[in-house]
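Today's session is about reading a structure prediction critically. Students often jump straight to the picture, but the first step is always the sequence itself: look for stretches that repeat, for charged clusters, for runs of hydrophobic residues. Only then move on to the predicted structure, which in these notes is written as discrete structure tokens rather than atom positions. Here is the chain we will use throughout the hour.
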Amino acid sequence: MSDNGRWVRPLGSAAAGGWDVAIDETVDSWTHTRLYAVTLATGESRTVPAAEFEHIVVPLRGSVSVTVVDPEGLSHRAVLAGRASVFAGASDVAYATRDCEVTVTAEGGDAKVAVCGARAARRHTPPLRHVGVADVPVELRGAGIASREVRNFGTPGVLDADSIIACEVLTPGGNWSSYPPHKHDEERPGIEADLEEVYYFEVAPEAGSPAAAGADPVGYQRVYGTDERPIDVLAEVRSGDVVLVPHGWHGPAMAAPGYDLYYLNVMAGPGEERTWLICDDPAHGWVRDTWTTQQVDPRLPFGGAQ
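Below is the predicted structure for this chain, in token form.
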């Protein structure tokens, strides 16, 4: 029996509190991560109240200001330049430590913004950090039709944080990513980390394509489990949709021919160490070896050379 009804949240089904998308600890069996997303008119704001969660603000389209009120009541502010769209290139982001109120406001035009969160045990200083776009590593991963682009703005080694791990993945039309299927749902030191994960999607016609009026950009996401911890998700996804991965093998994420696929990943778990360790499905891990004889898709990176 499909688990789509439990773990797939199409746009509109996860709206709450003025957010177009609100995934947090109010979701049944969801503990460690958060994802809020909203489209704002110029000057319009949304606020995430102070709690035991750290956050990363990611402009998806347009520019936003970020105001953080720390536990001492002091206010800190940064303006994120953002970008024209998620397919135009990487963006600067802002990190706020736990116990801070976070307010995002659209600057100079309409904006679409995501606020990623993770439960945190410790505060980090300063309470607000602005990560410039030049400091966001862009990685081209895989090869051939498994080529994709990864923007590692919130991963260990790039961003100092307590528990949150976040990145963006972009897949050209017709390619597969999150592949080979992999999982991270067990604590095995040095081998695998226990991390629940949010996938937030955007889909668009390929740049320069003669997309017909009424085109319906679409992609697909697969999640499946083990005998001990079953899960069965095969979701058709569009812009604004969310797939939750509490456990199990996940992948591929499939970009349909003609449509580029973007997803924002947010991960965190109960482990004391902030680490991103995955385990490939042994039935499919051999695929990685085939990449050594293939070229990276020339359509990457999105937005031109980095």
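Discussion point for the tutorial: The chain has a mean pLDDT of 96.
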